[in-house]
Specification:
Chain lengths: 492, 100
C-alpha cells in the first residue's frame, strides 16, 4: 500500500470509507511527519491531539454509519483563521498568545464536515508578504531546493506554511487566504494546486482581516479534485459576513469534467510581462495546446489595464489594512506596551511599534498616507477608479471567452533573502495574480512542471465570477495532460 | 510630491506607531520609492469612471432587530470578551488614566 501521507484528500476519504485504513492511522502518520519536520518551520502551533480526536470520531462514525464528507481527512489551517481554544497569531508578535473564544466560519464548516486539525500554519505577518519572511515566528523554508544547492528557498507567501506543508506531505491539504495572490503564488512555488474562489464565496468571519474588499479564503492541496472537495466544504452563505454571497454551493466535485468542448480560452497579451522566465513562456504555450486538445478554442484577448493592477493594489490593500489594523491598540486583546508614566496615546503608539513588524508598519503607513486629507482623491479614489477599469477589462474579455489562461508567477521560487533589499522587487512577484483579486474573480494555480533548477512552475486559470466549475474543469484538463507528480526530495 | 521626514513622522503619528529618527529616515526613502511607483496611476485616463465600491454585485443586508438573535455574537459574553485583554479590571478593559 502507498504510504498514507502520500494519498490525496479524495483517496484518504474514499479509503477510510472503504475500510482500507482507519482515520487514527492516517492522523498518526501525518502527526509523525509534522513532528519530524521542524526544520521547515511550517507550523506555528501543532495540534496532534485534535487531529487524533477527530480521527477517533471519524472511525466511530464509520462504525455507526454516519460518515461525513471529510471524515478521516486531517488538515492544516493557516494561522489567520480563528480556532477556538488554539492560538491564532497571524504570525505576529501583536497576537502572540491570542486564544480565540470562537471559531471562524470556514474552519467550523470543515470540522462539521468531519475534518481534523493538524495545526496552525505559518504565514507572512498579517498575510502581508510574498516570501514568508515577515513572519514573527521565523520564515518557513520550502521543502524544494535548487538542484545541487542547499540554499534555503522561499515557500512564497503569504500562505507559505500551507504550501510547504502540503508539498512536504505534512498535511494532505490546508486552507489559505488570498488577498493579492497569497494562495496562488505559494501554491505555484510549492508545486501544488490552490484556488481562490469568487469574492464572497467563503465567509470572512473569524479570518484576521487584512484588506476586506480583497480577502478570500480557499483550499490548497495536491490535486484539482481535492480543491473541489475542500472548497465545497468551505464555501457557503454566512449572515455574519456582510459581503458573503447568498448563493447555493454547487457540487463542484460531482460536476468535474475535463471535456472543454465549446469553451473559449482567452490568452491576454498583457501577461507576457517584462522579466517573464522564458521557461514559463514555453510552458504557457504548452498549456494552450493542452486546453485545445481538451476541446477548447483559443482566443486572443486584451486586458489593457493589467500593468496598473499592482500599483492600484498597493494603494487599496494598504488603505484597507491601515483601517483594519487600527483595532490593535493594546486595550482589548493582544500585546500591550505601556512605558513608565505613559498616557493612552503613548500606549497605543508603543504597543503598535512593538507589536508590528517592518512590512506591516510600512503598509499601515502607506495606507494612512493615501487616505489622509489632501491625498485621498489623488491616491485612493484614483486607485478605486483604476480598479473599476481592471474589472471592466475582464468583463469585456469575458464577452469573447469563458476562461483565461496565464502563468501564475513570472518566475519560479527565489532564494530566501534574495528580495529583502527592495520591497518593490518583492511586490512585482504578484503582478500576474493581483488583477483577478482586484476583479474578485475565481482563479486557480495548477502545478505544471519543474524548471531547469528543479523548482516548480505553475499555470493560472481565471474564470468568470461564480464560475468556479469552469476553472476547476480546465484545471483538471491541464492536470491530466501535464502529469505533474514531482515532489521534493526529503532533506529535513 | 516627495515625502520628507517631518511628513513621515506625521504619518507615523496618525498611524499611532512610535518611530525613532533612524526609523523615520529609513522609512522616508522606502515610502518615497513606493509612492513614486504608484504615481504611475496618474497616467490612466479615468474620465467618467466611477470608483469601485463593490467588486461582486451584492445586496447589503439588514439583520432582524432582535437582541441576542445569535448567541455567539449576542450579549452576555463579558468573560469571553475580556479573556484576551491585557489588563482586565473589575469586568472592564483597563487603560492608563486619561482624565487628570
Amino acid at each position: 500500500m502507498t504510504e498514507l501521507t502520500n494519498l490525496t484528500v479524495a483517496e484518504l476519504r474514499d479509503g477510510h470509507r472503504n475500510g482500507d485504513f482507519s482515520a487514527v492511522e492516517v492522523a498518526e502518520a501525518f502527526n509523525a511527519n509534522i513532528a519530524a519536520a521542524s526544520k521547515l518551520n511550517a507550523f506555528i502551533s501543532e495540534t496532534p491531539e485534535l487531529a487524533l480526536a477527530a480521527a477517533k470520531q471519524a472511525d466511530a462514525d464509520r462504525s455507526a454509519g454516519t460518515l461525513k464528507p471529510l471524515s478521516g481527512v486531517p488538515m492544516g489551517m493557516k494561522d489567520l483563521f480563528a480556532t477556538k481554544g488554539v492560538q491564532t497569531s497571524a504570525a505576529s508578535k501583536m497576537l502572540e498568545g491570542f486564544v480565540p473564544p470562537y471559531e471562524s466560519t470556514v474552519s467550523q464548516k470543515l470540522w462539521d464536515a468531519g475534518a481534523g486539525l493538524l495545526g496552525k500554519l505559518n504565514l507572512d505577518q498579517f498575510a502581508m508578504g510574498s516570501s514568508n519572511e515577515t513572519s514573527y515566528f521565523g520564515n518557513v523554508i520550502s521543502p524544494w531546493r535548487r538542484e545541487g544547492s542547499d540554499a534555503g528557498i522561499t515557500p512564497g507567501g503569504s500562505s507559505g506554511g500551507s504550501g510547504a506543508a502540503v508539498a512536504a506531505r505534512l498535511c494532505p491539504a490546508a486552507t489559505g487566504t488570498d488577498t493579492g495572490g497569497s494562495i496562488r503564488q505559494p501554491a505555484a512555488f510549492n508545486g501544488i494546486a490552490g484556488i481562490k474562489p469568487t469574492y464572497g464565496r467563503c465567509s470572512r468571519w473569524g479570518v484576521v482581516a487584512f484588506a476586506s474588499s480583497l480577502d478570500q479564503a480557499g483550499p490548497m492541496a495536491r490535486s484539482v479534485k481535492d480543491c473541489a472537495i475542500l472548497l465545497e466544504n468551505m464555501a457557503g452563505f454566512d449572515p455574519k459576513d456582510a459581503t458573503s454571497l447568498n448563493l447555493p454551493v454547487p457540487n463542484w466535485e460531482a460536476a468535474l469534467s475535463s471535456d472543454l468542448k465549446g469553451k473559449r480560452v482567452g490568452i491576454p497579451k498583457e501577461y507576457r510581462v517584462e522579466g517573464l522566465d522564458p521557461a514559463i513562456d514555453a510552458l504557457w504555450e504548452q498549456g494552450m495546446a493542452m486546453l485545445q486538445d481538451a476541446g477548447a478554442e483559443l482566443v486572443n484577448i486584451s486586458l489593457p489595464h493589467t500593468k496598473y493592477a499592482l500599483a492600484a493594489y498597493y494603494i487599496i490593500a494598504p488603505a484597507e489594512a491601515s483601517s483594519n489594523l487600527a483595532r490593535y491598540d493594546g486595550v482589548r486583546y493582544g500585546l500591550r506596551d505601556l512605558p513608565d508614566g505613559a498616557g493612552l496615546q503613548d500606549m497605543y503608539a508603543a504597543t503598535r511599534a512593538a507589536g508590528f513588524g517592518p512590512e506591516v508598519k510600512r503598509r499601515i503607513m502607506i495606507g494612512t498616507y493615501v487616505l489622509s486629507a489632501g491625498f485621498y482623491d489623488a491616491y485612493f479614489t484614483q486607485a478605486q477608479k483604476v480598479r473599476t477599469l481592471i474589472a471592466q477589462d475582464f468583463a469585456k474579455a469575458f464577452e469573447q471567452c469563458d476562461l483565461i489562461l496565464t502563468p501564475t508567477t513570472p518566475s519560479s521560487a527565489f532564494a530566501l533573502g534574495e528580495m529583502q533589499a527592495d520591497p518593490l522587487e518583492m511586490y512585482l512577484n504578484d503582478a500576474l495574480a493581483v488583477p483577478a483579486s482586484l476583479a474578485g474573480l475565481p482563479a486557480m494555480a495548477v502545478p505544471a512542471a519543474l524548471d531547469q533548477k528543479g523548482l516548480p512552475l505553475s499555470l493560472q486559470i481565471i474564470g468568470k465570477a461564480f464560475d468556479e466549475q469552469a476553472v476547476l474543469n480546465a484545471g483538471l484538463a491541464l492536470e491530466q495532460r501535464l502529469g505533474f507528480h514531482a515532489q521534493p526530495a526529503k532533506w529535513w | 510630491m516627495a515625502i520628507d521626514q517631518a511628513s513621515v513622522k506625521k504619518i507615523a503619528s496618525l498611524s499611532r506607531i512610535a518611530i525613532s529618527d533612524e526609523e523615520a529616515a529609513a522609512m522616508e526613502q522606502e515610502l518615497n520609492t513606493i509612492i513614486g511607483w504608484v504615481n504611475q496611476l496618474t497616467e490612466v485616463d479615468v474620465t467618467g469612471v466611477e470608483p469601485m465600491t463593490a467588486v461582486i454585485p451584492n445586496e447589503l443586508r439588514l439583520r432582524d432587530d432582535v437582541v441576542n438573535d445569535d448567541p455567539l455574537t449576542g450579549g452576555n459574553r463579558r468573560d469571553d470578551i475580556l479573556a484576551n485583554a491585557p489588563e482586565p479590571q473589575h469586568g472592564f478593559f483597563g487603560v492608563p488614566k486619561v482624565i487628570e
